[in-house]
Amino acid sequence: MPDREEEEARRAILEAALGSLEEFRNRPEPVFPEVYDDLAHHYRQRLAILNREDDDSEGPSKAALHDHFVKISQELLRIERETAVRLRGSEPWSS
Question: Quick check: is 94 in a domain?
Fold first, then answer.
């Protein structure tokens, strides 16, 4: 399990990202507000994992949840990249 200092650093990083996201959202004429909502939801979920109270239940630990989140996120990014490369090499899209 990550030590307390590492948890605090992760929390500070996520809170800084959320704060910046709110600043971006509040700029004049924000484009695609649903993108900001989606990203804010993502960062709040990550914060919720860090803020979850440790207990002695048999549920997953914060570290296990975080590790699984990172693993799935990396796999999805890999799939996105592979799909983009495949599409780049295929026939042009029809309009």
Answer: no
| Domains held by the chain: number | 1
19-76 residue pLDDT tens:
999 998 888 876 888 888 999 998 998 888 877 754 445 667 777 777 888 899 899 9
Which pTM does this prediction carry?
0.58
Measured between alpha carbons, how far is 95 from 51 in angstroms, rounded to an integer? 47
End-to-end CA distance of the chain: 51
Task: Give me the domain span that covers residue 34.
Answer: 4-88
What are 27's two structure tokens?
């700029």
User: Which residues in 14-51 are b (16+ Cβ under 10 Å) and which e?
Assistant: beebbeebeeeeeeeeeeeeeebeeeeebbeebbebbe
